[in-house]
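## retry 2 of 3
previous attempt timed out at serialization; input unchanged, resubmitting
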Amino acid sequence: MVEARKTFFIAGIMLGLSLIAAAQSPRLQPATASSKKAAPSAPRKLTPQQKFVMDTVSMAVALPQPDPQDRLRVLASAANVVSPIDSAMAKNLWREGVRIESELVQTGRTPAVSMVANGHGDCGSSQIFVENLPQSAVVAAEQSLIGAVTTCPKQTLDAVSRKLDAALQKKIVAPRALMAVMEAQGAKSRWSQSHFEAMFGSLPDPGEAGAEAENFAAMYMRMATQVEKSSATKAGLQLLEWLGQLDDSKLRTLAVNITTGAMKQALGEEGFKDALSSDVVASSTVQIVASSGAKGEVQHRPIESASVLGAMQNNGTDQMDRLRDLPASERARESAAHGFAAGTSGNKDQAGKYFDTAFAALDEVWETRAAGQNAAAVVEEISEAVAQVDSVNALERAQKLSDPSAQAIAMLAVARVVASNGVVR
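## retry succeeded, writing output
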């Protein structure tokens, strides 16, 4: 039944494509009194390109996504794609997404994407999201709170401030959200001044929140020159003591260097030395970092990418044997790059072989979903590459992926390309 629906859907799109030329050739028709009357109430007619996008979005969001994180990804992408064409549909998608986002953060899970942070929908819904948020979930909802304050400060600033204040009293600290509220309230405001001290007096267990060290240091650097020197001294020493308990020496070194630099700027060299002389633990932390001679550079996972330019230079040379030995995600990206190079050079048959390899690799990527790997981003990247060569073929390939969530994400990537570039064949 599903295959029949897909076949019918593709057939409908093919029929729509055949009408593009006719739709783009205006025909003069005599105006009548009845047609003038009916015009204001008649629904806006979609172009074939817009119909392709709307049909694709509708079918993608109708697919099941058992994982709420995947459902949230699909809704966020769908709302973004369809918004310029149908704002009412986009708003409905946004509301469903906000509901799922709220459910995720209330159970302590950080949303894969944030509908609230993306600014889709209305500020009233953002306000309800914040008001329904448990104070214990402010860390999981940090990106959502930042988005709410940034896009809808009038409706959400007071509510977010109250949530963060209540969380601080229980030593639950969301540093980036606090920074966003301080920026919105004003660094010199009474709220910002008092919560600067409260934050560094309520730092969480370093074993659980050590990954936030850089954010805490950045927060201190932003505010240290905006508060009284006594507050800057006290907070700086508290932060250094906390940083001294971190196991990650590189992260600790980076955060200590940021903090000491900010303390020197706020207190002056002599003031900084006087402050350290009054706190043995903080002084010891600074000395350990200084004696190591390290600057503290955090190592990030290397970004995997494929070079389209390199593929263009090797265009015409069969790369299939080399591609088979690559890890799945790299194989998908490299194959898509070579397929794009072949397809845009007019060799559709060769492009098809590379795209076959790319989409087979996508099934592997999605099935394993290795820790730290954004499988959804890989699916989007490959689907967009194919859509720029042949939109309908890309849609057909997307619908043949094994997992319904991967299908939906791939289909929406195709719709996004068509919405921007039109239908390519």
